[in-house]
Amino acid sequence: MSNRVRFLLGEEPVEIAVDDPTRTVLQYLRSDPARRGTKEGCAEGDCGACTVAVGERAADRGMTYRAVNACIQFLPTLDGKQLLTVEDLADRSSGALHPVQQALVDGHGSQCGFCTPGFAMSLFVGYGLDRAAGRVPSREAIDDRLAGNLCRCTGYRPIVDAARRAATIHEPVGWAAFKARSSAALAGIARSGTLVIDTGTRRYFAPRDLVALGEILERHPDACLLAGGTDVGLWVTKQHRVLETVVYVGDVAPLKTVEDRDQAWWIGGAATFTEASRAFADLHPDFAEVLRRIGSLQIRNAGTVGGNIANGSPIGDSMPGLIALGARLHLRRGRRSRELALEDFFLAYRKTALEPGEFVEGVSVPKLGPDQRFATYKISKRFDQDISALCPAFRVTLVEGRVSDARIAFGGMAATPKRAARTETALAGQPWTEATVRRAIAALAEDYRPIGDMRASARYRATVAGNMLLRFFLETEGRTSRTRVLAPRESAA
């Protein structure tokens, strides 16, 4: 037991003795190596001023990079990875700026400069993806890429222009060699077993396989499970909690599996929303679009589907759609596994059926049949970067114009993500007509007693819930268009 974390900072191998397992990457950067280009704005993963790139070795021995918020990522999660900051972008021998930096300079994409390093890092990761795909990004793609980076003074037009301009510039000659060296260096520091940090009062475990994870949780059933840290990170930075035992699941490869299993998709418990995006897009475009709005790209690169489920929030955007599709949750404790319908996992506000020492192994999500219609929606005050006021999802099976089966779920309407049992009953066996749907809308009042809060009043939630069921009907009948809010921005690119 060494209590030491190994990673690359740029190209430099770093080995650090850790005395606080919940020290953030941002805190480390601004103190130990004094890399102060990375800024703290909100300390909760909203503003993007702290954006950095985390690199991992790819299957082809190359490198993959993702933009993340350093303010809520714990330092030990970097073990075996590479960390890049804005200081790593310019060529060290010639001093030449990276194309995204040069484009920001040429396009006057900075004023006070506080947010600029975060923008540069988001653009850097996107630039690499665009160059690999041989494409110039659309306006929609740029907006999505930058939705997690806030600027108060420059305005976004010159920054968007810089993203376009950078995509036309060839990748610097030295970057291919840099990535090859980085990949080889990561292979040299790869850890085969569990990372253990024990300070005497604080413990941190990062296992690499399911058996080790199960054994650790059996010994420490009350440990805090850490995946993307998009929720747990705020416990530390905002609530100043002291987490005595943390078990990180982000290095357990089987938990990150996303597989097409013919009639269903399997999504591992530690798969991020970015990693699972192809599954959601295949299940239904509406689902992919709602989950694209679950948070910024930085949040989706870190936040996990299993974490969104396990925290038991009544407003987690993935649950209504998963419940409506009939998802089954797979739980594991040690070597024992069990499964249950996802809707049965939520018992009360923030209370779930998860037993001590148990973890989410994955979720299986059935694909839609030819007679089934599905839609899910996110209702929020802002389009991007906002928590839902309510999130409905609908799936009906139609046979000869009648509803043979209905599954309806809402988030934000009750203390848990909850099915609308009486509304489903009102639809079952009935002709799929507007009159049937309007009668079913009346039953929503028996299924839910929504509360009023800062996001919406109870009356607003109840009214919109009924309107969304009617909208779903009209869309399935082709009586209203399904144009997407992003379509005008895409066409303006």
Q: What report would you give on this structure?
A:
- Helices cover 33% and strands 21% of the residues.
- It is an alpha+beta fold and 493 residues long.
- It folds into 2 domains: 186 residues, Beta-grasp domain (Ubiquitin-like (UB roll), Roll), CATH 3.10.20.30; 223 residues, 2-Layer Sandwich (Enolase-like, domain 1), CATH 3.30.390.50.
- Strands 2-1-5-3-4 form a 5-stranded mixed beta sheet. A 5-stranded antiparallel beta sheet has the order 10-11-16-12-13.
- Strand 12 and strand 13 form a beta hairpin.
- It is globular, with a radius of gyration of 23 Å.
Give the distance, in angstroms, between the N- and C-terminal Cα atoms: 54 Å
The CATH topology assignment of the largest domain is Enolase-like, domain 1
Low-confidence stretches: 483-493
Oligomer: single chain
Mean pLDDT: 93
Residue share in β-strands: 15-25%
CATH A-level architecture of the largest domain: 2-Layer Sandwich
* Main structural class: alpha+beta
Total beta strands? 20
C-alpha geometry = globular
Quickly count the domains. Answer: 2
> What about the largest sheet?
5 strands, mixed
Number of helices: 17
Q: Report the CATH superfamily of the largest domain.
A: CO dehydrogenase flavoprotein, C-terminal domain
CATH class of the largest domain: Alpha Beta
Spatial extent as radius of gyration: 23 Å
**Strands of the biggest beta sheet: in what spatial order?**
2-1-5-3-4
